Amino acid sequence: MSGRDATQLPEGAVPRQVFVRRYKDAAWHEVDDVLSREVPVRVAWDAAPGEAGIAAGSTRLWAWPHGLADLALGHVLLDRVHPAVTGQEPGAWGIRHAGAVAETGTGDELAFQVALRAAAPARAPQPPMPMPAAVLLDAMRAFMGEEGLWDGTGCFHRAGVYDPVQGRLLRRAEDIGRHNCIDRLAGWAAREGVDLAPRLLLVSARVTASLFAKARRAGFSFIVSRSAVTTASVDMAEAQGVTLVGFARDREERFTVFADAGGRVLE
Predict the structure, then answer these.
(1) Going by DSSP bridges, is the β-strand pair 222-225/254-259 parallel, antiparallel, or unpaired?
(2) Distance from the first to the final alpha carbon of the chain
(3) N or C: less crowded end of the chain, CB within 10 Å?
């Protein structure tokens, strides 16, 4: 396996070796290949104590089977109990709850229980500091430059939290689903008490309306993608004062600023 060493992964998360037929250069070839594992994960959560309108529930996700506690917590916080999702605060941005995660599966079942609790009272969000173009490209270079699970399978997305003050990547998450990557970052941030508002979100995937909305619920207001953006995400970014950058390709020394009312991308 190229990319991340398989010995660093639990057995159930190691990509599966397969023997396939490949058509290339006008000829058939029998070759070895690898497939990313994708498994069902059951996530349940308790009712948030003292919070009206947040009931207990459960759902099933499909994910890469590693580091699932952060995924479970982040999914519940962003997609199940977030004020913008429950209708309590439609324009709310930032993580408002925290929680403890316990693995409850038995045998081959992957299942997690999230015990919700109120997070510390949110302070006024601090916007990310402006970044020169060259520094932004350096951030993307650090984000995309490390080996990862994509290198072996061609199947993974990644997302990362970049701190412009420290000038380094704080966290990188990989998964077969681009939304799962944001969930993993949100779960980590809630567990570690990291405020995402003054940080950048770096993503390998295209920024659609749904991905943009999830990033906003996590608290980000500076989003940089290696891929494309859609009209809906640009409209939302302009309406909400979010900086949205696409096609950030460090090897080509280029990126495109689609929305930047706050003037965060400097010459």
Answers:
(1) unpaired
(2) 41
(3) C
User: Which of 158, 161, 191 minimizes the C-alpha distance to 72?
Assistant: 191
Domains (range + CATH), the chain: 131-266 (3.40.140.10)
C-alpha span between 152 and 155 (Å, rounded): 8
Nearest to 7 by CA among 152, 117, 145: 152
Amino acid at 114: V
Angle at 178 between CA 177 and CA 183, to 5 degrees: 95
CA distance 37 to 105: 18
Which DSSP string do the residues of 144-203 spell out, in sequence order?
Answer: HHS--THHHHS--EEEEEEETTTTEEEEEEEESSHHHHHHHHHHHHHHHT---TTSEEEE
Its pTM stands at 0.92
pLDDT in tens, 200-227: 999 999 999 999 999 999 999 999 999 9
